């Protein structure tokens, strides 16, 4: 009873006070209830893919949004995860439950190498150099078709489980764990250092931060999560093809990340959950399926013209406001801060006396 | 084989130089990483195809009309889409990606996804030293050289060129000296897209035209620009020659070279970046805070 009351108090005081937290809670609840409420294999398939891409987009945000290392070749980590896992599963006959982890580790090593390459580069140079990396890997894969399957990729992989609900559950749990892990990382002291590196690397170094080590760490972390999503993706689709390394996929990550709002983690995730099912849904219509990429691009462009800081950031600013005194977030309907009692919206409100 | 390498390398370099110099110019003046740059090259090729094959216009008229139309379109896009979000670099970035995707899909819907061939606009071949080169290919080289010379003249011998170089060097100082930075940015967008459009029109009869033809040159062009140093025109030219010839040599002299040409060209770029992080001729930008 005590635990229940405490849980209710937590819910009331920590989650229900902020509309954004309510939305997140509803979203998690929705994901958990989806297979019960709507166990349609087609829907589950779309949401599974959405979950995997959400990990990918969030991992891009960790690297680009927080640390400012705007990578245009994030598909490299996704693709190496997918290919490493697929090659191991195919050639050594290992269970996908093992190879997914190995794939993620390989992606992590590749991420470390990328980070090392990119240490000296900054800004646009870094973006354009990273763009090249997955294309180099594609070229090498195509040059050795016996090993990599060439343009067709490696097909006939085993799934982690056979039922659609099982696959959905794996993807959803992996997504929730990774996204919340990234959110925690980004919110921690480590995340603060990343902000500092993005805003002014020289100043960060002058404050005694070993920026090299932090940059390598964030490259590795981001690659690890992208590798997990890539490996899960290849086992879900049962094929690891060159499309996992394509420029289009790298750009997709950039679009999701910036469309949702960079340096937020939840922004890209929300963007994937809105945009990916949207494009799939467009594909259902006979006449629209040819136009769906066009509609996608136009939507992104139009929304961006009105919300250049990203959609989720824009929405959050509408439904919440920041206390000018203690910087805590408040629902937009409140007239005074829920923590310190300072007046919001510039209106004067006398501070409450402590009882 | 040696002659093949020489000629193909020269053609590649010419096309890449036209693209890379334009991209470099926009980056230098307006700090826009214009992913849609090669999409304009694709659009010019399609526009040329439509005017030449569908509307049956004269070659010269069709070519010039295509270039003018695409340049006008680029100014329109810049005004409507890029200008409102100029302060948000990230937004500009995905706006150009979205723009390129939109163009690709529009062409796919309008012309279909299959390859379109444009008949040779001038026939015959030119014989030198025992090998014959089709005039069509000579034309690419000549046009590229002429356009590069014209660009050089524009940038280094006219007042507009002076304004463009000044703005690229220091936007604030240029504004203080009475240059209209917005108008200079517009002019450099126009010049740069015009160069891309010229490239699109001259290569259309030699290469095939299809909605995805912008992706491969995009990557190569970015590699060249980074190799030469962002914003440096000399660097872009030298980068274009290097990458053009490296690609030609890989295709003709290395087994499975057609797959590896991109990989080798990009590896060279990465090696150069490791040695000189600001590219061959790039000026290390001051930290823009």
List the helices and strands and how they pair.
The complex is a heterodimer of chains A (355) and B (289).
Chain A (H helix, E strand, L loop, with lengths): L1 H14 L3 H19 L3 H26 L8 H17 L4 H23 L4 H21 L1 H4 L5 E2 L8 H24 L1 H11 L1 H6 L4 H27 L1 E2 L6 H14 L5 H17 L9 H15 L4 H9 E3 L6 E3 L24
Antiparallel strand pairs in A: 1-2, 3-4
Chain B lengths: L1 H29 L6 H18 L4 H24 L6 H23 L13 E4 L2 E4 H23 L1 H11 L1 H6 L4 H23 L11 H14 L4 H21 L3 H19 L14
Antiparallel strand pairs in B: 1-2
Q: What this model shows, in words?
A:
The complex is a heterodimer of chains A (355) and B (289). In chain A, a hairpin with a 6-residue loop joins strand 3 and strand 4. Chain A has helices at 2-15, 19-37, 41-66, 75-91, 96-118, 123-143, 145-148, 164-187, 189-199, 201-206, 211-237, 247-260, 266-282, 292-306, 311-319; strands at 154-155, 239-240, 320-322, 329-331. In chain A, helix 2 (19-37) packs antiparallel against helix 8 (164-187), helix 3 packs parallel to helix 8 and helix 5 packs antiparallel against helix 11 (211-237). Chain A has 355 residues and is mainly alpha-helical. Chain A has 2 domains: 1-35, no CATH class; 38-262, no CATH class. Chain A has a two-stranded antiparallel ribbon with strand order 1-2. The radius of gyration of chain A is 22 Å and the shape is globular. Chain B is mainly α and 289 residues long. In chain B, helix 2 runs parallel beside helix 4 (89-111). The longest helix of chain B has 29 residues, at 2-30. Classes of the chains: A mainly alpha (355), B mainly alpha (289). At the A-B interface, helix 6, helix 12 and helix 14 of A face helix 4, helix 9 and helix 11 of B.
Characteristics of this structure?
A: 355 residues; mainly alpha; 2 domains; two-stranded antiparallel ribbon; 15 helices; B: ABC transporter involved in vitamin B12 uptake, BtuC; globular
């Amino acid at each position: 009873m005590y635990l229940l009351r405490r849980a209710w108090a937590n819910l009331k005081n920590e989650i229900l006070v902020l509309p954004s937290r309510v939305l997140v809670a509803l979203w998690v609840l929705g994901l958990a209830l989806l297979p019960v409420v709507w166990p349609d294999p087609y829907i589950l398939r779309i949401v599974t893919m959405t979950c995997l891409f959400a990990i990918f987009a969030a991992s891009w945000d960790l690297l680009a949004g927080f640390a400012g290392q705007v990578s245009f070749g994030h598909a490299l980590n996704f693709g190496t995860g997918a290919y490493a896992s697929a090659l191991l599963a195919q050639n050594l006959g290992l269970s996908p439950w093992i190879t997914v982890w190995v794939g993620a580790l390989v992606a992590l090593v590749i991420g470390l190498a990328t980070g090392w390459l990119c240490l000296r580069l900054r800004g646009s140079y870094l973006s354009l150099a990273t763009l090249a990396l997955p294309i180099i890997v594609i070229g090498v894969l195509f040059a050795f078709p016996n090993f990599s399957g060439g343009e067709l990729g490696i097909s006939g992989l085993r799934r982690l489980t056979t039922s659609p609900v099982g696959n959905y559950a794996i993807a959803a749990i992996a997504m929730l764990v990774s996204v919340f892990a990234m959110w925690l990382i980004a919110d921690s002291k480590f995340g603060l250092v990343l902000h500092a590196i993005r805003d002014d690397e020289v100043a960060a170094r002058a404050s005694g931060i070993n920026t090299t080590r932090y940059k390598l760490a964030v490259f590795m972390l981001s690659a690890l999560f992208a590798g997990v999503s890539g490996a899960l993706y290849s086992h879900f689709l049962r094929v690891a093809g060159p499309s996992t390394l394509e420029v289009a996929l790298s750009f997709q990550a950039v679009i999701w990340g910036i469309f949702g709002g960079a340096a937020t983690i939840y922004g890209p995730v929300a963007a994937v959950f809105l945009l990916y099912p949207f494009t799939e849904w467009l594909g259902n219509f006979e006449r629209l399926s040819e136009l769906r990429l066009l509609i996608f691009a136009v939507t992104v462009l139009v929304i961006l013209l009105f919300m250049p800081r990203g959609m989720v950031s824009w929405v959050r600013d509408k439904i919440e406001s920041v206390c000018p005194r203690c910087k805590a977030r408040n629902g937009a309907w409140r007239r005074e801060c829920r923590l310190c009692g300072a007046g919001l919206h510039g209106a004067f409100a006398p501070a409450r006396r402590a009882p | 084989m040696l002659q093949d390498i020489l000629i193909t390398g020269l053609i590649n370099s010419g096309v890449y130089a036209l693209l890379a110099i334009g991209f470099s110019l926009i980056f230098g003046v307006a700090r826009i990483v214009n992913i849609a740059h090669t999409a304009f090259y694709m659009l010019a090729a399609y526009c040329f195809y439509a005017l030449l094959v569908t509307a049956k216009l004269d070659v010269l008229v069709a070519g010039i009309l295509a270039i003018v139309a695409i340049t006008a379109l680029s100014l329109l896009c810049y005004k409507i889409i890029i200008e409102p979000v100029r302060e948000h670099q990230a937004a500009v970035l995905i706006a150009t990606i979205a723009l390129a995707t939109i163009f690709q899909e529009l062409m796919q819907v309008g012309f279909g996804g299959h390859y379109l061939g444009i008949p040779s606009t001038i026939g015959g071949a030119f014989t030198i030293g025992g090998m014959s080169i089709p005039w069509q290919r000579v034309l690419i080289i000549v046009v590229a050289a002429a356009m590069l010379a014209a660009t050089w003249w524009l940038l280094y011998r006219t007042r507009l060129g002076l304004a463009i170089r000044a703005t690229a060097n220091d936007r604030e100082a240029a504004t203080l000296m009475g240059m209209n930075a917005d108008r200079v940015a517009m002019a450099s967008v126009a010049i740069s897209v015009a160069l891309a459009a010229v490239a699109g029109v001259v290569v259309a009869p030699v290469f095939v035209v299809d909605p995805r033809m912008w992706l491969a040159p995009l990557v190569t062009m970015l590699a060249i620009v980074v190799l030469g140093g962002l914003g440096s025109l000399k660097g872009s030219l030298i980068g274009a020659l290097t990458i053009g010839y490296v690609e030609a040599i890989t295709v003709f002299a290395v087994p499975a070279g057609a797959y590896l040409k991109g990989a080798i060209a990009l590896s060279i770029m990465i090696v150069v970046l490791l040695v000189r992080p600001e590219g061959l001729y790039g000026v290390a930008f001051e930290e823009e805070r």
